Amino acid sequence: MGNQKIVLKTLIFAALLLVSFEAQAQILNIESFRIKTDTTGWAGYVGLNISLTKNTKQLTNIGSKAHVQYKSGKNLILLLSQYNLLSSGQTDLIDKMVLHLRYNYKLTPKIATEFFLQGQKNSISKIDFRGLAGSGLRFKLSNQKKFKYYLGSTAMFEYERTAFGDTERHWRWSNYFSFTVFPADNFSIVSTSYFQPVFTNFSDYRISSQNAIYFKMTTRLSFKTAFNYNYDSTPVMGVPKEQYNLSSGIVYNFK
Predict the structure, then answer these.
(1) Is residue 122 situated within a structural domain?
(2) How many domains does the chain have?
(3) Per-residue pLDDT tens for 37-96?
(4) For residues 214 and 180, is the Cβ–Cβ distance under 8 A?
(5) DSSP structure string for 30-78
(6) Alpha carbon distance, N-terminus to C-terminus of the chain
(7) C-alpha closest to that of 114 among 49, 158, 174, 43
(8) Residue 64 CA: distances (Å) to CA of 12, 49, 51, 152, 227
């Protein structure tokens, strides 16, 4: 019984850490949420979790995710919603929300147009609200069995209101490079990196890189090691320019 309690506490602590790590990212990696499918119709998932922990302090953790994708011919619509709240008593340790809507239209087998709208908040980065609206192109550089490469470039308008009440409006140039490599049948590398400078001031930029290595142990079980890095050249006052984390864990694939 004692060992079960230790395992349970460890799992709860690990889950809280994962929520904390997710909440640090200021740039949403939409590539990690694309469902690769050749069939027409709907795909996605919806999830909700609520937990209450009471010991020396009371911790409340609320999280929800919704990912809906519709594909028909050359059209692809993707809707993503995430919310995380971790509070201790009257203090919110984490308060994060993201709502993202994206439309892709395939011009050729390797080129697609993209249009997107996004709203988000992040208490850790002291972002009370950030709204994005953009459009651009997505290029499929390769889609071989052993390696897949994608490049995207969009122009986006950004409105940001900080926790201190300051507001900013910018046109940013958002660029990303994403790849998946399969060096062996039981080994894969997945990476997506973003570079987002302000058009009129390239010294004001953001960099985000999310990388993961998967070792397949069985048909459904994999061991995952991930490293995420975020850099903002002009963050909100009191927020560090660099944020990063390294994590490892087990992934179960239901497919």
Answers:
(1) yes
(2) 1
(3) 666 788 877 778 888 777 777 788 888 888 888 999 899 999 989 898 888 877 777 888
(4) no
(5) GGGG-----SSEEEEEEEEEEEEEESSSEEEEEEEEEEEEEEETTEEEE
(6) 33
(7) 174
(8) 17, 6, 12, 28, 23
Q: Is 239 exposed, middle or buried (0-12, 13-18, 19+ CB in 10 A)?
A: middle
- The tens digit of pLDDT for each residue in 101-127 reads 999 999 999 999 999 999 999 988 899
- Whether residue 43 lies inside any domain: the answer is no
What does the alpha-carbon distance between residue 138 and residue 111 come to, in Å, rounded to a whole number?
6
What pTM value is reported for the model?
A: 0.78
CATH number at residue 248: 2.40.160
Q: Which residue segment(s) compose the domain that 218 sits in?
A: 2-35+90-252
Residue 145 lies in a domain: yes
Domain membership of residue 110 (yes or no) is yes
